[in-house]
Amino acid sequence: RSIVFGSSRNNTMCRAVEPKKDEAAKAPAGRSRAVFETYARLWASSYLFLTLSALGDSCESVLPVVGVPEWLFAATLAATFLKPSPLVTCAGHAVGLLVFARRLPRVFDADYWAAHLDAAFLVAAVATGAWRPTAAPERRDEAIRVTSRFFRIQLSVFYSGAMVWKLNSAFFDPTGNCPAILFLQLAANWLPARALESDRLVRVLALSAPHVTEWVEGGVAVLLAVPGVCERLGIALGLALHGLIALTPPPHNIAGYGIRLIARYAVLIPDAAADAASELVAVSSIRSYGAVSIAAVAFLSKVFVVDEWPGIEQRGVRDWLLPAYFALAFFVGRAAVLAGRKGTKSTMTTALPCVMTQQPSSRRRRLSIACVVEAVVFVFGLTTLGFADNAPPKPFSNIRIHGGSNHLFLPTDVLGRLAGVPTIPSDVVRVERTTSPTLNAHFPADLSSFLDPKAVGLLRRAGHAARLFGPAIPRNVGPDVVPPNGSPSFVRYTLPVFELRRALGEARAKNESFELTYTRFPRHAYDAARPRADPDGSVVVTLVEDGERGSRTCSVGEVKQTGRLFRGRRTDCAADEPALLAPPPPWAGRVQLFWPHVVLEDEETQPEGHTGYCMLE
């Protein structure tokens, strides 16, 4: 039976209607149960792919540190995939969030996306009572419906943030923007050499890359917000976006980014995803799926087999996440096709009682509003106020957080720059040189040597500097992956004092002996538009530490005029000198992580700060 309801001003009338024979035949048996199971298995699959990649050569994994929570997470993933149940699925989400918290701050922004989506499912499961072992199938379906509403809000806001934060001068800088590197990496790897002999084509690809990226990410954000045809187009566009990112040669081949997200796309079209899951195990479809899989493996073999990371002892690396991504993408794409077929409508309500098919309750509306507010604050508020750099979604944007905003209309660090509050981005130093192995391994993490020489040649033909820095790689993957700073020449960079204290604490924990020289700027005085200038009141600090003996000397020299180092008398450092302070509190070090800005020596290549290179965050 199906439930039909009609509402008057304050009442809802319900009556049971026997479905027509052809309609009853179309509605698959067990759909109510399959909708929840399909989501649970897709969620578990995405994390299993990321977890098992640690057993291969892929650099990205959700289990860089293994302890009891990580083993428990792996067990709940396996249990959820084999036999989904409400309690086990919810427990897996909760343990996954615990693992995420244990990894902080060694996480990518995609991990924050996934954590928000997992938390949204838990909220929906608790709000609907679907977490209980005795939850009826309709309760499980209601949890997926509420989750779908949350996911639509979150994904739209997240993709909007990824697009909006790219509206800055550095992102459109023709000598250093990130999209030009990705586009020409793809061109060098996939287009025939004869086509790339045209300088005009190379320049068009490089100059159009930032604009195409903005339109694609903005399109995904808008389309996913509108159920129906637009939503399916948004899913297709998102699959293409993350697929091209996955196919990009190292170090931009981040298939894990897409795996974390596209598995959640299926929640937007839950009935079609359940149909696709049923179709996947049907005997009649095994041949077609097998043929497509063989063709996909043959197509991906070029990247899958010969990928190489120069920083990892020059050994070849198989990107195991690449076929995993396209397996998920093929499934979600098939679900989108099924959802678009004429006559295919949501049948979730056929198994729900009248109380479930009424308009959303005030509690559900409040939850939806809270979801919108939280997503907007996380994506836009934290960066604008100066509370976060790593967490909010702004991949490859080169947005400046410290030293003044380079955004076309949005400020950053408002509390520090405008209100005078001592925020983390307010206190900045410029590292002039250091011999610390820890600091040189993490900052600024020059990845330029990782780029394919063919892509570098195309970039330079287009007027691009082909410079790439990625401090997230040594922080999240490992400090031995990236060549250390100083080989062959030292690259200066600016850094919030907060991060300097963290790095010095890590160096001292290893009993390192080193020297460090940095320029400390007065609070709120550093102007990233002039990265080489020294405002009045800047001081140069020299720190010498002997880790074996436990001795330390620190001296300060005042800079009376800009552009000159070590000018003026030198005195001992005060007790509150950043180089002498303890590391940040553990809780603050976990939830806050800020990136450096590279100071290039060529003023023509870098007329203002955070330009002339791509920052892989």
3D structure, described in words:
- By secondary structure, the chain is an alpha+beta fold.
- It is built from 21 helices and eleven strands.
- The strands form three sheets. A seven-stranded antiparallel beta sheet has the order 9-8-7-6-3-5-10. A two-stranded antiparallel sheet has the order 1-2. A two-stranded parallel sheet has the order 4-11.
- α5 packs antiparallel against α6, α5 packs parallel to α10 (255-265) and α6 packs parallel to α15 (362-385).
- The protein is globular and about 80 Å long.
- The two termini are 53 Å apart.
- The relative contact order is 0.11.
- Residues 1-30, 55-63, 304-316, 342-359 and 562-566 have low confidence and may be disordered.
State the strand order across the main sheet.
Answer: 9-8-7-6-3-5-10
As a whole number of angstroms, the C-alpha radius of gyration is 26 Å
**Largest beta-sheet details:** 7 strands, antiparallel
Outline type: globular
**Alpha-beta content class:** alpha+beta
Averaging pLDDT over every residue, what do you get? Answer: 83
Count of alpha/pi helices: 21
The proportion of strand residues reads: 5-15%
Oligomer: single chain
Distance between the termini: 53 Å
The helix fraction, in percent, is 40-55%
Unreliably modeled segments: 1-30, 55-63, 304-316, 342-359, 562-566
Count the E strands.
Answer: 11
